[in-house]
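### Sample
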Amino acid sequence: MIKVGVNGYGTIGKRVADAVRAQPDMKLVGVAKTRPNYEAEAAVRKGYPLYAAIPEKSDAFRNAGIDLAGEIDDLVMQSDVVVDCTPSGIGEQNRELYRRYDTRALFQGGESADAVDASFNARANYDVARDDDVQFVRVVSCNTTGLSRLMAPLDEAFGVEKARITLIRRGGDPADASRGPINDILPDPVTVPSHHGPDVNTIFPDLNIDTVGVKVPATLMHLHSVNVTLSETPTVDEVRDLLHEEPRLFLVPDIAGIGGTGQLKEFAMDTGRPRGDLWENCIWDESLSVEDNDLYLFQSIHQESDVIPENVDAIRAIMDAADQQESMEKTDENLGVGLESVFGGVRKRITPRNADD
Ligand code: NAD
């Protein structure tokens, strides 16, 4: 059993904790929180041992009637791996804490690539985290994860000469009351190219990719308008067959009648996905087009959840506990990743297993 601690229990942290709990080869040691808010209460109700992320604030938990299992040092000491899900920039400051106990740590996409030994995407470069010398790994951002999952098979099968992506980005997560824009459309960043392309290059150093970003008043998902110039000229059916083979890519079929991110999220909620999460890239099948050797498509990325299977795989990779295929299959099976199956005739479970079963 791999002992896993989660430091930072917000949007990403609470999902990572649930995903770890669904893996029979992992044990969730506990989660660390800064304050006894509603998320702390929810963690307690789920039976997750709670640790004070800031020891000086331990009393606030006691005053709120919440029992603590310990403080952050106790959690780090007991864990084989800590998944750091703190806000951007805090993870980097926590490296000293993890070094003190010689504990491996995973960081999220908000941290700088320079703060870690390796940047990780399960489909594209799983083995980079398996090296004995690697202590700190960054699971790349939601957008970079979505792009890496798509670029890996395209590059392997047809060769990518140049990728050009427009990222239409959600303004904030549904719980982020302070984010915007509320009624505007912002070039963001206004400079071209955006930072997303260089971030994809932390996974594929040689990929020729340019990205531009726009921010819109939405909270549900991002939308990528993708144009990839390929070295070959496949038919649309050949591209479709290739993408169809990838469990973490969901080709949204015409018959589903899903016209946008709102209906995608509705579908996820209707099918019982926890928090309405969509761990898969959602690629509109009808958008697949090939003009000469240019491929075009639209894909939506659920920013709150597509990195969750990747974090689970990164735990196994950094512990060298499984190879790429074994880990990805286990993760997908235990979480229920693979919406393709819903429309493919064989209706598999698409929600997490109960690890206690
Ligand atoms: P969040 O604000 O929802 O959650 C962060 C949590 O960490 C909060 O509960 C906060 O109280 C807590 N925290 C703050 N300081 C802390 C400390 N010193 N120690 C422990 N906990 C602390 O943030 P998030 O959206 O979950 O983002 C976390 C990381 O994941 C960031 O690097 C972000 O860039 C990345 N990420 C976010 C998304 C997304 O869409 N939300 C997607 C992919 C990656």
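The longest strand covers residues 160-170. This sample (Glyceraldehyde-3-phosphate dehydrogenase) is used throughout the tutorial notebook.
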